[in-house]
Amino acid sequence: MPASRPRILVTTRLFDEASTRFLEAQGFEVVPSGLPGDALDTNIPDADLNALLDGAAGWIVGQRAVTREVLAAHPQLKVIARRGVGYDRVDVAAARDLSRVVTIAAGANDPAVADHTLALVLAVLRRLKANAAAIARGDWRVVSGADLTGKTVGLIGFGRIGRQVARRLSGFDVTVLVTSRTPDPEAAGVTFVPLDELIARSDVVSLHAPLVPETRHVINAATLKAMKSGAVVVNTSRGGLIDDEALFTALEQGEIAGAGLDVFEAEADPDRQAVAEALAAREDVVATAHAAGSSHEALARGNLISAQCVVAALAGTPFPPGCLIADGRVK
């Protein structure tokens, strides 16, 4: 009998046929999660996930936590490929300890997130939510907003997405300030400043930093009080970068003018769901459900990059640039 093909479990939502065919053409068997195509893999019960992982050599994962316990229970699982760029839900230390490979889909959603960032900035400044709500209730009076042109925009973080946001802002005749752990003196069109200066000077503060202990709640009660009263905050990075309760209080008290939020603390902490819903309900907040990176094009890119990462780890082909996060095979 012919040898069975290595099994690749795919639990991320909206995994397309083209990426499935790519894996199959490389000699792998693709095992779907059994969830509806647009459902998050956080909805898979633990027992069902363990059954799906039995015998799997690779796992293309979406939002599901990849814990030491899961990895230890499945020693045949060699590669965990995140269809995304954040990996805070993956126990990378455990993966290294247990000789596994962890990858991300670097670059897949950068253009989509940068586009979405600008969409939120403009929507909040021009009060599109308030205008749409007024018309929906039959009130056609104009709700005036503010220009982006001529403003100062502060970017906290200057990685791949932050740089693309800065490039898009170049068409708006704005001043771009950047706070980054690694300032780039070669970067054109931006000025690197300390965080407190960025907070005080910016009309728009946009977050593009990873969520690490040093950046958790970088936007908090104190930084919100230090902002201009007309400032807006935009977050398309990670929910924990903002203290959501402090943001709600600042908006309630008129300390800032609005917020555009694609991520919330509630994604990682269900106890914060009430404040997330309260923020999303506000007329001065434009909210989306972690959708910034979910354009059709970005999802397709992420699917294929994740599939290429699995093949690289299991067949020895080169990893796509910037995708290898941990290689526990190398001690």
UniProtKB/TrEMBL annotation:
The alphabetized UniProt keywords are: NAD, Oxidoreductase
| Keyword tRNA-binding among UniProt keywords | no
Cross-referenced Gene3D superfamilies? NAD(P)-binding Rossmann-like Domain
- Give the PROSITE patterns listed for this entry: D_2_HYDROXYACID_DH_2, D_2_HYDROXYACID_DH_3
Residues crossing the lipid bilayer are none
Fetch the InterPro entries from UniProt.
Answer: Ado_hCys_hydrolase_NAD-bd, D-isomer_2-hydroxyacid_DH, D-isomer_2_OHA_DH_cat_dom, D-isomer_DH_CS, D-isomer_DH_NAD-bd, NAD(P)-bd_dom_sf
- The UniProt record lists the S-adenosyl-L-homocysteine hydrolase NAD binding domain at 145-293
Report the sequence similarity comment from the record: Belongs to the D-isomer specific 2-hydroxyacid dehydrogenase family.
> By what name is this protein known?
Phosphoglycerate dehydrogenase
Give the organism, scientific name.
Answer: Xanthobacter oligotrophicus
